[in-house]
Amino acid sequence: MVDDGLYDKIPTPDIVMAQHLIPIHSGSVSLKSGPVLVSADTVCIRLFASKGHTANPQVTVDIISVASKIILRFQDLERVLSEDGYVSIFPEQIHAGQPGLPWVEHADIVLDVKAYDPNLRIKLLQGINDIVNEEATLSGAKKKPEITSSIRAPLTSNDQQLTEKVGAAFKEFFGVENVLEDVPSHPCEDFSILASAVKAPYLFWFLGRVDPGQLDRAHQTDRFLEEIPIEHSPVNAPLIHPTMETGMKALSIATLFFLGNYNGQLWESKGSST
C-alpha cells in the first residue's frame, strides 16, 4: 500500500493504530510497551554446483550435501545468538534438481529470519552470509553463491508513554481485570510500515477472541493447543460477541483519547448489541 502511493491519495495520519485477535478471553484487550511484533526477513540463497555427473563425485560438487551442511550450521548460529535474545532462522524451502536429470546445477534455500533486537538481526544476516560463503568455498564450488534478503516485516515496538496513556483509558472503561499484557509468541506483521513511512507514532494491541469457559477448560486440562485453534487455522472461529463490540469500543476509545474527546464513556444506542 505504501509503495503504491497510499499517502499520495490520503492525508498523512497523526497516529496509526491497529489491533489483532489472540487466544485470550473474549471481552479483554492486551496492551504492552516495547516490542510486540518481531521483525522478519526473507533470505533467498542459490548455491551452484560444478558441471559434472553425480556418478563422478571426485570431480563434482555435491550441492545438496553443501546445502545440508549450511542448514546445520544455521542452527549453531541461532544457538549462539539466542543467548542475547530471541532469534530464529527457519528454512522455509529447499529445492534442488529436476526429475529425470542425473545432475543438479543449483540448490535454492529460502529462510525466514526473525529477531526483536535490531543488533541481533544484523548479526543474524551477516552470520548467514558468512556461513554460506564459507561452505561454498570449502566445497570447491567455482561460482559464488547468490544471496538476497528483503524485509518482510519490520520490528513493531510500542512507545511506553502512549501505551500507558491508552492503557489507563482501557482500564477505566473495560475494567482492570480485562486489560492484560499478554503477547503471542513471536508474532509478525508489517503494520508499522504504515507509520514509519510518514514518521508517525503508532500503537498496536491485541483483542481476546475465545469463550472464557472454553479457555479455562483448555488450561485446566492442559489441552490448550488441542482445544484452542491458532490464529490462521481454518477452524478458528472467534466468538463474535462480545469480541466484535470490544474491538469497536477499543478503537473508539483510543481514537477519542487522541482527539482529546474521551471522557471515560461511550455512547450506545438503546437496544443495540454493539
UniProtKB/TrEMBL annotation:
InterPro entries in the record: Amidohydrolase, Bact_exopeptidase_dim_dom, Peptidase_M20
Pfam families noted in UniProt: Peptidase_M20 (PF01546)
Claim: Hydrolase is one of the keywords in the record: yes
Single GO MF descriptor: hydrolase activity
UniProt keyword list: Hydrolase
Keyword Thylakoid listed: no
Coiled coil location: none
Family according to the record: Belongs to the peptidase M20A family.
The protein's name: Hippurate hydrolase
